[in-house]
Amino acid sequence: MHRITKRVATTVGAAVAALATSVAFGTSAEAAGNTVYSVTNPTGDAKAQFVSNGDDFILFDLNQKDAYGVVLDVQVKYGSNPYQHFTNKYYSGAGYGWLPYSYDFVEGRLIRFRVCLQKGVGAKWESCSGWRTATA
């Protein structure tokens, strides 16, 4: 019985996270010129999405048992210069949680972002996704 309860909780948690994404930010079909860019770390425990129409990020913690939080790392491109560090955000959602972050980038600005795991604020970042380039 305990295993069934765990499976139901896991399934419900994943469904709530997916529904929250579509409710909070909609889908690209709902807004003209809106693109959703996503990255997931190699273990599948952390995910970040960027919604171009509104410059919104959503950060997901997808594993309640690993004791890790997730980090959103964002860099911005200014002209012909290399990408510059813009911000990083830490979120400890205790698993199956999500948190939105909103910015106001110059339209057409190139950004790149990735998501990593972090075992507490100030700890080393681990298991980072690759960089995902997007246009604001």
Structure in words:
- A hairpin with a 7-residue loop joins β4 and β5.
- Strands 4, 5, 7, 8 and 9 form a five-stranded antiparallel beta sheet that branches.
- The protein starts with a helix and ends with a strand.
- The protein has one helix at 2-25, and strands at 36-40, 46-51, 56-61, 69-76, 84-91, 97-102, 110-118, 125-126, 132-135.
- The protein has one domain (2-135): Immunoglobulin-like.
- It is α+β, with helices and mostly antiparallel strands.
- Helices cover 18% and strands 40% of the residues.
- The longest helix is centred in the N-terminal third of the chain and has 24 residues, at 2-25.
- It has one helix and nine strands.
- The model is unreliable at 1-31 (pLDDT under 50).
Brief write-up:
The chain is of the alpha+beta class.
How are the secondary structure elements laid out?
Blueprint: H1 2-25, E1 36-40, E2 46-51, E3 56-61, E4 69-76, E5 84-91, E6 97-102, E7 110-118, E8 125-126, E9 132-135
Antiparallel strand pairs: 1-2, 2-3, 3-6, 4-5, 4-7, 7-8, 7-9
